[in-house]
Amino acid sequence: MRLNLKIWRQKGPKANGKMVDYTLNEVNPEMSFLEMMDVLNQQLVDEGDEPVAFDHDCREGICGMCSMFINGRAHGPMTGTTTCQLHMRHFNDGDTIVIEPWRASAFPVIKDLMVDRSAFDRVIQAGGYISVNTGSAPDANSLPIPKQNADMAFDAATCIGCGACVATCKNASAMLFVGAKVSQLSLLPQGQPEREERAIRMVEQMDKEGFGNCTNTGACEVECPKGISIENIARLNREYLRAKVVQK
Amino acid sequence: MSGKTKTGLIKSSIGKKVFMGLTGLFLCLFLAGHLAGNLQLLLPAEVARDQFNAYAKFMTTNPAVKLLSYLTYFSILFHAVDGLYLAWQNKQARPQAYYKKDDAANAGWASRNMAVLGTLLLVFIVIHMKSFWYEMHFGNVPVYASIEHGELKDLYTLTTTAFTEWWYVLIYVLSMGAVGFHLWHGFGSGFKSLGISHPVYTPLLNGFGKGFAVVVSVLFAILPVYLFLTSLN
Fold first, then answer.
1. pLDDT of the residue at A136
2. How far is CA B48 from the centre of its chain?
3. A202, A190, A189, A213: which is closest to A239 by C-alpha?
4. pTM
5. Residues of chain A numbered 184-213 and touching chain B (CB < 8 Å)
6. Nearest residue in chain B measured CA to CA from A178
7. Neighboring chain B residues of A219 at a CB cutoff of 8 Å
8. Which residues in chain A have Cβ-Cβ distances shorter than 8 Å to B12?
9. CB proximity B6 to A under 8 Å
10. Cβ of B210 under 8 Å from any chain A Cβ?
11. Dihedral sign computed on CA atoms, order B11, B12, B16, B21
12. pLDDT at A97
């Protein structure tokens, strides 16, 4: 199939970028979106042009590295997929595809389609962990956890930190990400000793990074490749308020 | 983790949203009360005049109502200032817009336009308060002696006269549309901002909020239209 691509090109963090048009003549519908990008880059290298820089790692839909805002949607038109799991059979011959980097002041562009998502790392560093000495694994069921809580914590823990929630949110808010990370630990007994401090510190770091505020539009949960529920945002609000009241 | 954090609630993003939820939901209660009072305008003119004016007198003189009205003024101002500040912060969070963004793919129209709707409502509130609240408190509303309630300011005639102008009716009807859309998203969202969420009750609450949005905006909008149509006869 033949595709017209409109891709954001930006030489570096300080450079001015612009949309550039490319044409690919022989795209196999069985290719993943990233493989299509590989073909484009091979073509650019052959022509003596600079290849398009984009993030990718596992290409199995679990690492959270691939990003790209495709035709106005984070990770493209399909729900519950990362860009590496999006296949060209979902596009038609002759389509024009617009490809942009995540847009948020907290995710500055490094080059072309690559953005710096270390703001998420700093939010995790602020409190997204439990302070325990590691040792041998505890015996199974020595720490009773209600099944329902274990399920909710696990669902929250499936967040891969890709940033699609921020990218799609009209406010570039990181509440779904932070909500998932706070929920995951606040639902488990291991998370209890630092429960209040964690919520407060992670929210403070989130605000410091310049993410926007949550309007509860629900766009994030629609675009999340892991289907993290917006329920986690309400829980974050609850955890944060509770922490503000309880903290001594 | 070490070191205590002492940032005030209102400085945090979540704190600002909590206050948006609290003031917004309080204003929903206010709207229900305001609407109940306004519905008296649907009574036959000869009954409505005295009853509505006596009600207006009660609402402007009763100490408990006065206290509530101060809380309402505060809520409106706080909701507006907080909301505009949040909207400004949200703009800062994405300085460069997308070349193409499919907003409708994942979020409802009302939820994406809360700040615009809210700003329209703020303008409406200024017009509305100038027309009736200001006239009632500081203007020269004619006083007459009613048989049942003694001396009354004739807010009823002021109101029915105001809605003889078609453009004024139109402003009100459009503004009530804005109220409807604002509540359509705001009612349920307010509870979420307060951290209230439940697998069974949240969908019911959201459904109630949408019903509330439609009923309140439609009933409010019927009044100016009704007064306009009756003035034609």
1. 85
2. 24
3. A202
4. 0.95
5. 194, 197-198, 200-201, 203-204, 206-207, 210-213
6. B14
7. 103, 106-107
8. 203-204, 207, 240
9. no
10. no
11. negative
12. 98
- CB contacts, 8 Å: A6 with chain B: 99
Give the pair of three-digit tokens for residue A126.
């602020």
Residue A51 is given by DSSP the state P
Residue A61 near residue A33 (C-beta atoms within 8 A): no
The predicted pLDDT at position A138 comes to: 81
- Residue B56 identity: A
Put the strands of the sheet holding A3-9 in their side by side order: A18-24, A3-9, A96-100, A69-70, A73-74
Distance CA B122, CA B94 (A): 25
Listed by start position, the domains of chain B span: 11-91+108-232
* A72, A217, A233 member nearest B98 (Cβ): A72
Asked if the Cβ–Cβ distance from A241 to B195 is below 8 Å, we say yes
The arrangement of secondary structure in A117-246, i.e. its CATH architecture, is Orthogonal Bundle (1.10)
Inter-chain touch A212–B195, beta carbons under 8 Å: no
| Contact criterion met (CB below 8 Å) for B26 and B75 | yes
Shortest distance, CA A217 to any CA of chain B (angstroms): 5
The residue assigned the tokens 């009044």 is B223
Please report, in tens digits, the pLDDT of each residue of chain B (233 residues total). 765 666 788 999 999 999 999 999 999 999 999 999 999 999 999 899 999 999 999 999 999 999 999 999 999 999 999 999 999 999 999 999 999 999 999 999 999 999 999 999 999 999 999 999 999 999 999 999 998 899 999 999 999 999 999 999 999 999 999 999 999 999 999 999 999 999 999 999 999 999 999 999 999 999 999 999 999 97
What torsion do the CA atoms of B73, B74, B79, B81 make, to the nearest 10 degrees?
A: 100
Sole residue written with tokens 């990074």:
A209
CATH superfamily of A3-110: Beta-grasp domain (3.10.20.30)
Which CATH number is associated with domain B11-91+108-232? 1.20.1300.10
Residues of B in contact with A75 (CB under 8 A): none
Residue spans of chain A under pLDDT 70: 248
Domain ranges of chain A: 3-110, 117-246
Q: By the 8 A CB rule, do A127 and A64 touch?
A: no
User: Distances in Å between the alpha carbon of A46 and those of A37, A49, A51, A55, B93?
Assistant: 14, 8, 10, 21, 39
Q: Is A141 left (phi over 0), alpha (psi -120 to 50) or beta?
A: left
d(CA A5, CA A23): 6
* Minimum CA–CA partner of B192 in chain A: A234
What's the pLDDT tens digit per position in A120-165? 999 999 999 999 877 888 888 888 999 999 999 999 999 999 999 9
